[in-house]
Amino acid sequence: MSAKIRKIAVTIEETHIEMGKPIDPATRKAVAVAVIENPFAGNYQEDLSDLMEIGAELGALLGKKCVEALGISPDQAESYGKSAMVGENGELEHAAAILHPKLGAPLRAEVERGAALVPSSKKIGSPGQVLDVPLGHKDAAYVRSHFDGIEVQLNDAPRAGEIMVAVAVTDSGRPLPRVGGLTHDAAEGNDGLR
Length: 194
Fold this sequence. Notes:
Layout: E1 5-18, E2 21-37, H1 49-70, E3 79-86, H2 92-99, H3 104-111, E4 120-124, E5 131-137, E6 148-152, E7 162-170
Parallel strand pairs: 3-4
Antiparallel strand pairs: 1-2, 2-7, 3-5, 3-7, 5-6
Helix pairs in contact: 1-2, 1-3
């Protein structure tokens, strides 16, 4: 089953100054959101494999849109995250089916590598509600400078029979990181942790 997409939105956030200090180069995050029809809205469905396939489709599509929006090559992506909000006639498990079994591998292909788990969140919500997308380093989970997040909000989504699916990609960590730990340059990315 292919996703029935009502709309896609892509946003870029750039931070040029933080606490009065210039950030050069600016830290940048992109988030791409697809608002899709929930084929199981209002009905219990034991087999959620159709949503899992939609997850794979959206992992590639939204990951590519983020990389293109940042104007980088896939290897220049530094962190990523995923999130989904199900409209009121859906269930939390619909978001889980999209996000977990199959979305990760196509997203990793779009950002080249991706040894670390893709941070995720899911919720049930209504139109205009904020969806938080957690972020973490794509190859080494212990890189603290890349523990971050980005919000996305669409005034008309998700409607009762929809799911709002978001993928975020960055080309940097937080501005002015100074809580120590493993750095991006020192990360090996062999085990997804360091």
